[in-house]
């Protein structure tokens, strides 16, 4: 059971969606002994003040003797900001209610212990499931050591992503496209294969009002097929463009991409001759990229699913029938038996213009970042 004050803190935390990475989203609420909310705060962006400090600053002397509700264990180290534990102790807060402990292995622990040693009552677990659900990318990166991966697919009602002649642009509506760009804003990186660059020539940028940094653009090109003249390299976005390729691709091709601002990263191929998806994700995790939006194509989707490295599926279903035996489907490869087919839990089903958007989670997702069954829900709008 989540208290109403922690629910409010979780709502506040979500306001930082798309702007706090590589930090988690955190919200805080200060409540006096009579149950009145004294002050609130949330973490707006990486490098900015943490949620607890924002709330305490707004409360001032009124925080003394109060209870602080916060969605993640307060930090106990100096990074880009001072320790939140110091601010809490100095404020005179009597009790701290924490949704969940900080799982990040790269920072010193001890926030909970420090508060208790200072005579502050600490309770952990109020809204723990919801807090982990809110910060699934952060928990996946911290616990599993890789980014949280979302597969994004636009497809026809009969499951096709393009016609037999390769037409795929404008399959879905302008409303769905707007939602897809918001999805881009919520991720640290956008990843596509070379086939998508060659077929669609996308810019891989966020077209809405900029609230944080543009996502890093990631291209998987094992054979060095992408041209330096592609639109993705002509964009004015300051976001880096990373091109993963095999060790044996042309040096001259690498120089051409370097000249247009791309960084080429060479990896040893797997046994099948293709780039290793686990190695790509490991490299991105080292760069503190917590979430990746995979936009195709079908072979790339198949590779992530085959390695059990997809966490979320967002499918944009257009009310159109494409047909055709040769028309590509969302996931390429040899397919699965029904017994071995990946299973997903549908979280939400929503309408965006004439299209339906299905947001689902793969059931193999790591327990630390998974959505508990009693928290998950299916909403139809």
Give a written overview of the molecule:
- There is one protein chain.
- The chain is α/β, with parallel strands linked by helices.
- It folds into 2 domains: 4-139, 3-Layer(aba) Sandwich (Cytidine Deaminase, domain 2), CATH 3.40.140; 146-363, Dihydrofolate Reductase, subunit A (3-Layer(aba) Sandwich).
- It has 11 helices and 15 strands.
- It has a 10-stranded mixed beta sheet with strand order 10-9-8-7-11-6-12-14-13-15. The protein has a 5-stranded mixed beta sheet with strand order 2-1-3-4-5, with helices on both faces.
- Helix 4 (111-117) links the parallel strand 4 (95-98) and strand 5.
- The protein is elongated.
- The model is unreliable at 371-381 (pLDDT under 50).
- Residues 1-123 form the CMP/dCMP-type deaminase domain.
- One of its GO terms (biological process) is riboflavin biosynthetic process.
Report the biggest beta sheet as strand number plus sense, adding barrel if it closes: 10 strands, mixed
Number of helices: 11
Structurally, how many domains make up the residues?
2
**For this structure, what is the CATH class of the largest domain?**
Alpha Beta
The helix fraction, in percent, is 25-40%
DSSP strand content = 15-25%
How many beta-strand runs? 15
User: If classified by CATH, what would the architecture of the largest domain be?
Assistant: 3-Layer(aba) Sandwich
Strand order across the largest sheet: 10-9-8-7-11-6-12-14-13-15
CA-based gyration radius: 23 Å
Q: What is the end-to-end distance? A: 26 Å
